[in-house]
Amino acid sequence: MATMTIRCNDADKIAAAEVAEYYGFDLSSVTRAFWKQMARTKKIPLDLGYEEPNEESLKSIQEAREILANGNAEQTFNSGRSLLDAARL
């Protein structure tokens, strides 16, 4: 069995450990799984793509920015439930 040492900054390690813990793993288990998947698939299992918002999302983002800038929201909601209830029309 080999032992590895990985250098990274503390903030990245803490953030990664929190994600691993959320899924019930520790960083060592995640690292081993990463290597096993690389060996099994002969690929690096990383998504390096940058997801850009589609046209509908860009329009919604712009609309929300205008509402916030102008302070002219027609209706406000104090919970997600009240928003969903209003959307039922």
Q: What are the defining features of this structure?
A:
single chain; 89 residues; mainly alpha; 4 helices; 0% strand
**What percentage of amino acids are in beta strands?**
under 5%
Portion of residues within helices: 55-70%
Oligomeric state of this protein: single chain
Helix vs. strand class:
mainly alpha
Secondary structure: number of strands: 0
Biggest sheet details: none
The averaged pLDDT comes out at 90
End-to-end span in angstroms? 62 Å
Q: Low-confidence segments, ≥5 residues, pLDDT <50?
A: none
User: Roughly how many Å is the radius of gyration?
Assistant: 22 Å
Shape: elongated
Order of helices and strands: HHHH
Number of helices: 4
Plain-language structure description:
The chain has about 90 residues and is mainly α. Helix content is about 60%, strand content about 0%. The protein contains 4 helices and no strands. The protein has helices at about 10-20, 25-40, 55-70, 80-85. The model has no long low-confidence stretch (mean pLDDT about 90).
